[in-house]
UniProtKB/TrEMBL annotation:
<dbReference type="InterPro" id="IPR023214">
    <property type="entry name" value="HAD_sf"/>
</dbReference>
<protein>
    <recommendedName>
        <fullName>Beta-phosphoglucomutase</fullName>
        <ecNumber>5.4.2.6</ecNumber>
    </recommendedName>
</protein>
<dbReference type="InterPro" id="IPR010976">
    <property type="entry name" value="B-phosphoglucomutase_hydrolase"/>
</dbReference>
<keyword id="KW-0460">Magnesium</keyword>
<dbReference type="GO" id="GO:0008801">
    <property type="term" value="F:beta-phosphoglucomutase activity"/>
</dbReference>
<keyword id="KW-0413">Isomerase</keyword>
<comment type="similarity">
    <text>Belongs to the HAD-like hydrolase superfamily. CbbY/CbbZ/Gph/YieH family.</text>
</comment>
<keyword id="KW-0119">Carbohydrate metabolism</keyword>
<dbReference type="InterPro" id="IPR036412">
    <property type="entry name" value="HAD-like_sf"/>
</dbReference>
<dbReference type="Pfam" id="PF00702">
    <property type="entry name" value="Hydrolase"/>
</dbReference>
<dbReference type="GO" id="GO:0046872">
    <property type="term" value="F:metal ion binding"/>
</dbReference>
<dbReference type="InterPro" id="IPR051600">
    <property type="entry name" value="Beta-PGM-like"/>
</dbReference>
<dbReference type="InterPro" id="IPR023198">
    <property type="entry name" value="PGP-like_dom2"/>
</dbReference>
<dbReference type="InterPro" id="IPR006439">
    <property type="entry name" value="HAD-SF_hydro_IA"/>
</dbReference>
<keyword id="KW-0597">Phosphoprotein</keyword>
<keyword id="KW-0479">Metal-binding</keyword>
Length: 225
């Protein structure tokens, strides 16, 4: 995908995928629990979500199993974890309420749509192609497109660049604190979806403009006002 020059008035919505487009983080957490249990290790589910959601699988594996691990080994371990996740979540695959209406509305207004996710290509395919959503997006930025996961801003800055929109004209949709922090570092406002954590978990962020249970109550006019 070639980068575009930004247009001063171009607006974009950038969606996190896991936990935002789909309500699947409990299945990610369960797959990590299974993955670590196989290695005789117990993890605390809440703490694990808070400190890892939005980071790339390879970063999570290195920080829990050793920074010294070779790339091939990390890739194999991550493949194992993501295969467990997809098997667990497949019967439940579904977009969060109101998502398809919101993006249809945005498209009709010429607002660019992007995905900014820590997920690897196999999970992007599983979710976006599984729900036939990819065609709606101008671009999808995933784990293999940027060096660092959230809370680094890379994924959102790359998505904005590909959409040709300035960060100040982008609105990010997120469910995880590390994702909200990534958007803050990118200079972007955020709508939080409370699929996984309650609204109180986001109290410290000054870039959050709305906190909602799903997309059905959102209006683009209000968000960009
Ligand atoms: O950036 P997103 O779409 O929320 O993706 C986050 C998730 O990406 C997955 O690939 C990881 O295995 C998860 O543990 C992680 O939390």
């Amino acid at each position: 995908m070639t980068a575009r020059t930004t247009a001063p008035d171009k607006r974009a919505l950038i969606f996190d995928m896991d936990g935002t487009i789909v309500d699947n983080m409990a299945f990610h957490t369960q797959s990590w629990i299974t993955f670590f249990e196989r290695r005789g290790r117990a993890i605390d589910a809440d703490e694990f979500f808070r400190t890892t959601a939005g980071r790339q699988g390879k970063e999570i594996i290195r920080s829990h199993m050793g920074e010294h691990l070779e790339d091939d080994e990390v890739a194999l371990l991550n493949h194992e974890k993501e295969a467990v996740y997809r098997e667990l979540y497949a019967p439940h695959l579904k977009a969060v309420d109101g998502f398809e209406d919101l993006i249809a509305d945005a498209r009709s207004q010429g607002i660019a749509l992007a995905v900014g996710t820590a997920a690897p290509p196999a999970n992007v395919e599983f979710t976006l192609d599984g729900l036939d959503l990819r065609r709606h997006f101008e671009t999808v930025v995933g784990a293999t497109d940027v060096p660092r996961g959230k809370p680094h801003p890379d994924v959102f800055l790359e998505a904005a660049k590909r959409c040709g929109a300035e960060p100040a004209h982008c609105i990010v949709f997120e469910d995880a604190p590390l994702g909200v922090e990534a958007a803050r570092r990118a200079g972007m406002r955020v709508v939080v979806i409370t699929t996984t954590l309650p609204r109180e978990a986001f109290a410290e962020f000054d870039n959050v403009i709305a906190i909602v249970d799903d997309f059905s109550s959102l209006s683009l006019e209000t968000l960009f006002a």
